[in-house]
Amino acid sequence: MTMVQAPTTGRVSRAPSWVPVAAWGFGLVAVGLGAAAMVAVQADALSRVLGALSVAVGLGALGWGATSLSLNRTPTPRAAVAALFVGMGVAVALLATAPGRASIFAVALLLGLGATVACGTIRGTRHPSARSSLWGLIGSAALVTLVVVPALGVCQGAALLDADGAVLPVVTHDGH
């Protein structure tokens, strides 16, 4: 009994190994921005909806990066680039929402990571990477960690700002 395989059409899109890691950074920052927008002290309905959309895009980026590394190719490159632009648009919209509780640093980093991932994904479609480099993966993980961790810290700080710029206290529920 022989199995017939369907012929593959076109080339396999394979972005360099740093692209999924940068997508993880994008996803983490998008989730942080979205979570801060939803729980901000003066969050309104629009910022909560935009926050939920940002969290969804961020979780999608995390899953896409993991899938890309596990398959050793770039899955759905066009949809990935479109989702990146949606996430970047949501981040910019979070800056313009009524309480405006998004961190400018985190949004700028998200825009930079989004553009980097989009360019790497498009490049991988046009010029597939031959193989993944372990050192490239380690280096990109270290670089993304160095820039993402501070951005996650300022996401929460921006959520705690009052309208006059004062930092609101965090209410703890000790003993309850």
Layout of helices and strands:
Elements: H1 18-39, H2 45-71, H3 77-96, H4 104-126, H5 134-159
Describe this structure in words.
The chain has 176 residues and is mostly helical. It contains five helices and no strands. The protein is elongated and about 50 Å long.
Which class best fits the helix and strand makeup? Answer: mainly alpha
Return Rg in Å. Answer: 19 Å
- In terms of quaternary structure, the protein is single chain
Categorize the overall geometry: elongated
Q: Helical stretch count?
A: 5
Beta-strand fraction estimate = under 5%
Weakly predicted, low-confidence segments: 3-9
Biggest pleated sheet: none
N-C termini distance: 67 Å
Overall residue-averaged pLDDT value? 81
Order of helices and strands: HHHHH
Helix percentage range: 55-70%
Total strand segments: 0
